[in-house]
Amino acid sequence: MKAKAHHLKDAQKKTWRFSDLIGDPAVGARWEKVRRYFFLRESTYDMTNRCNIRCDGCYYFEGSKQFAHENKAPEDWRDLMKGEKARGITYVVLAGAEPSLVPDLCQVCFEEMPLGAIASNGLRPIPRSIDYKIHISVWGDDETSLSIRKAKDMLVRQIDNYQDDPRAVFVYTFTRENIDQIHGVMEVLARHGCKVTLNMFSSPVGYTGPLRHTPQSLAHARQTMLALISEYPENLLFSPYSAVAHTHIRGLHDLYSCSYPRMNSSTAIGLGRSFRQYRADLTWDRTAACCVPDTDCTDCRHYAAGSAVVTARLFRHASDPDTFRSWLDYVDTYLAVWVMGYEKGENLCDHMVAPPGHGLVDD
Question: Are the C-beta atoms of residues 328 and 34 closer than 8 Å to each other?
Fold first, then answer.
């Protein structure tokens, strides 16, 4: 153990060339696999201001975007997608408040922009002709869902709609109160062959309710995530570094510097230049633009935010073999969750690695 610790310390002190980091055949192959997707440029779109359920702590119903007038004209959406493609957007995320209520508009988006994902509560099936990834939100077991989402038998209905659907990824969001419920939920989802990823509740601005995480619940969620990775390797799309990044006591912005316009004033390159978050009336506001607008940025550990914020920090992670492997695992996970046809590989790093410049926990 002491020899291994010395070896790790020596590895971290060494200045690594990038060619050294990808010299391992498995690492080199993973690098070649993920870098083919570096062309992805995303923006997000609120499809409607309606939802068929109302969840405590829902970010959509904070701020002014919920009051935007719905544009229901398919041709306006088609023109928007054509314009987005012309300015370099290659990937769309259809969200707020519930896209399954407007399948005709989702169809138009898919016809113009073939890569994307839909965030849905999964209570209404989305036509198979819309070949986007579909992220189905799960906030605990059915008793908890009834309490905080006011809907009965959510998991059963979600599975009925999306079992055996290659588009579907069930997204389990850890709140402060539902961490241990994942075991029962995961067992059910795995029994039905469903793919699952993990998310952390990130408080809307001003939210101080019982779903908001504490240092204790962050640590509990992290250990639970690590156990699940070992227990459900076939069903769970996640990695040890994903657990570290999303359960750290510091939020994503403090750890990595958020790339989205709301927190990033630069328009020179990357998301600061290209990202827009459109409201249901097809307008957008740079000062509010991020993937989960009206979230408290200091508390943001959202999986959607991390998929862009962490993956954008390649150079910070190209410091030593373990840190780089962890980053590759994170990117591999993100692509499997968000891109149709992309299959996640085995994690290259099986232990926790600290984010660059930080400890595993930090005070």
Answer: yes
3-state secondary structure of 134: strand
Average pLDDT of span 40-46: 96
Q: Give the whole-angstrom CA distance, residue 196 versus residue 138.
A: 10
- Separation of CA 252 from chain center: 12
What is the longest distance spanned by two Cα atoms in the chain? 66
DSSP per-residue codes, 187-205: HHHHHTT--EEEEE--PBT
In this predicted structure, what is the pLDDT of residue 85? 97
Per-residue pLDDT tens digits for 219-276: 999 999 999 999 999 999 999 999 999 999 999 999 999 999 999 999 988 899 999 9
3 state DSSP class of 172: strand
Distance CA 230, CA 233 (A): 6
Q: How far apart are the C-alpha atoms of 286 and 126, rounded to whole Å?
A: 30
Residue 153, amino acid: D
**Token pair for 126:** 């989305």
CA-only gyration radius of the chain, Å: 20
By CB neighbour count within 10 A (0-12 exposed, 13-18 middle, 19+ buried), where does 203 fall? buried
Strand 196-200 to 116-120 pairing: unpaired
Query: Coil, helix or strand for 170?
Result: strand
SS3 19: helix
**Cα dist. 116→40, 60, 94, 101, 224 in Å?**
10, 20, 8, 18, 30
Contacts of 227 (CB under 8 A, 6+ apart): none
Residue 100, sorted as left (phi over 0), alpha (psi -120 to 50) or beta, turns out to be alpha
CA distance 56 to 59: 9
Decide: residue 274, CB within 10 A, 0-12 exposed, 13-18 middle, 19+ buried: middle
Question: Which residues have C-beta within 8 Å of that of residue 319, sequence separation ≥ 6?
Answer: 12, 16, 356
Residue pair 149/55 in contact (Cβ under 8 Å)? The answer is: yes
Q: How many Cβ atoms are within 10 Å of 338's Cβ, its own excluded?
A: 25
Among 97, 127, 119, 114, smallest CA distance to 40 is for 114
Distance CA 203, CA 142 (A): 22
